[in-house]
UniProtKB/TrEMBL annotation, chain A:
Residues 181-285 form the Acyl-CoA dehydrogenase/oxidase C-terminal domain. The keyword Oxidoreductase applies. Keywords: FAD, Flavoprotein, Oxidoreductase. GO terms for molecular function: acyl-CoA dehydrogenase activity. InterPro entries: AcylCo_DH-like_C (IPR036250), AcylCo_DH/oxidase_C (IPR009075). Transmembrane segments: none annotated. This is Unannotated protein.
Automatic annotation (TrEMBL), chain B:
GO terms for molecular function: flavin adenine dinucleotide binding; oxidoreductase activity, acting on the CH-CH group of donors. Residues 231-368 form the Acyl-CoA dehydrogenase/oxidase C-terminal domain. It comes from freshwater metagenome. Signal peptide: none annotated. This is Unannotated protein. Residues 125-204 form the Acyl-CoA oxidase/dehydrogenase middle domain. Keywords: FAD, Flavoprotein, Oxidoreductase.
Amino acid sequence: MTATMLPTEVGQMSAVALAEIIERSIDGNPVADYAERESLAWSVIEDGGWDCIAVAEEFDGGGASLRDLVEVAQVWGAANIPQPLLETIWAKRWSAQARERSGPMSVSVRRLGVSDGSGLAPFAALAATGIARSIGAATDEFDVAPLGEADAFTPALRPSVLPWTTKIEAEAARELGVIWAAEVVGAAQKLVDLSVAYAKTREQFGKPIGSFQAIKHRLADMHSQAQYAQTAVIWASLEPTNSQRACHYAVGISISLAEQSIQIHGGMGFTWEMGLHYYLRTMLTRRELIAGLWP
Amino acid sequence: MTPLDHQQSFLEGARAWLSTSVPDRWRQERGALSEDEIVEIRHEWDRRLFAGGYSGLSIPTVYGGQGLGLRQEVLFHEAAAQAHAPEGIGRIGKILTVPTLVAHGSEEQRAKYIPGIMAGTEVWCQAFSEPGAGSDLANVATFARKTEGGYLVTGQKIWTSFAQYAERAILLAKTSQTDPRYRNLSFFLLDMKQPGIALRTIRQISDTSHFSEVFLDSAFVADSDLVGEEGDGWNIAMTTLTSERGGVEAITRYVEVRGDLDTLMHCCATGSDVDTQVKQLDTRLELVRWQVMKALDYVEDDLEFFRRTCMLKIMWSELWQEVTQLAVSLNCRAHQEHWRNQYLETRAVSIYSGSNEIQRNIIGDRVLGLPR
Ligand SMILES: Cc1cc2nc3c(=O)[nH]c(=O)nc-3n(C[C@H](O)[C@H](O)[C@H](O)COP(=O)(O)OP(=O)(O)OC[C@H]3O[C@@H](n4cnc5c(N)ncnc54)[C@H](O)[C@@H]3O)c2cc1C
């Protein structure tokens, strides 16, 4: 039994500092403004050493634990920035080859519902992204993906279908699942925050809609559900035997939170510009990727 | 012939007609059609319905309807669901404008507008909601100022579905700055093709644009296009909204959900472990149709009818959302595009036509008489 549920100091400080960098680069702009362009340059990520935070200390890395990465991934998920930061952090943690390389990295994950051996690779359509052939084994290798056609459904992840999948060692796959689930949970919490803020300012019948119990109770439930989802990914990070079910649970409930946030925003929530859908699209694709990691 | 035989022969006729009339392209390649093609097919469908004698089944023949009952309307839609028929683009005219004019319009207005709706030659839209008047519809600020022979309307509407295709709109606007709430609104029939009207389409989360903002700058409405009296707007709009959330609306939605659920049952959910879930969704969908049929026996008694129809909007909308939620999670590659689109599109069904929260308030207040 772990003595504390908290991340280490590395995790806490990384999360705070990353949030600041994101804040500076998106500069208060709404997600619809930045989710489809290079809003945070890869050089900023690399210069800050962000890609190496979870490399073991013996290899001169930041030494962040999986629990720490849960913290960082939530911050990243709340922003929905179209860069493979989490994939790269994870790759460098698991692969000596990855540590030798620079630039963004990603993986190709088994697609469900097909039997042709193809994989779905987030960010493969992003220039110069190295896609791992295998991770966690002695023979790690990277391919620089051909600039494949990105699936337009998920602008922030720009996934492409590749004819092969990355061979991922089981423990590494588990960690990636936890990190992606934590990203989704961060997005869900952000949507809850946006919904609360909207309910305080949007007025109908001469009152903020948050004063109606239908909305107040829904938001109270949403807060509780976001808490369960967060607890689930923390649990997933600390207890390997339960990672899979805890991650599936966290992602399922997060998607429901995104749906509810649209409901609270009324017609506005249904508009492209309001941007809630960017998070929802990312969540749906992450759900698919996570399911592909755990056969 | 007994009434049941009548129904049976009506249904057989409808089935035969549908089997030759539903466009193959719609039945087979719906997912691959472009936006323009879809709009054209929906337009054409309205005209075919009319030519085939299936437009406005429950509308009196004097106005170009078929003079049958709501029951035939339900039977036809059931058959249309099985035939995977498209939904006409004239739905606002048929479901909202016509019942409102039948209840509150002048003889002249009925004669002038209903035939074009029936024939599928005039598309209507509903210009009710405004940025500050969504759930709180009585708060509309768009103002209709009296002028020689009519009114000059200025203001902004939002979320106006079909506005870009519409010849006309039913419009709710203020006609008094001093009369109290609920007594200061009037109901108009607005010509959308005039200089005082500008549209800006709104991009939806599904990346399509079915609705618009409508900017009115001294748009003209003739006196003869005021429905009822000045100040009656709110009461008349209630008729419109009750139709919008009522039985005919529900049965047309049944058609759409049936199409989706059939796809799910016959393809995407086969061989997966969600069988029980799918069967339950199917049961609930059939209950929508049976709920409408049950209510039809009470159509003469407003309150009793409303007791049995007030939940329909909540019923079909939440069900449809659950169907697409399940479907999009199943990773059926053959229908991936379809489900992604339907999943995002159905996020709106619990918001439009009055949100489900508002509908629950209405059930609590008007049906159950709970204290406010
Ligand atoms: C796809 C789509 C098509 C539409 N088409 C048309 C159209 O053709 N014509 C037209 O006029 N309008 C149309 N609308 C507008 C629709 O009717 C409104 O969006 C709806 O009434 C909600 O209003 P709102 O968007 O301003 O949300 P708000 O009223 O701001 O509501 C925000 C949230 O607060 C809740 N809420 C508000 N008041 C209460 C309360 N008293 N108690 C409990 N909860 C409350 C709502 O349920 C919602 O969850 C359309 C909307 C959509 C999404």
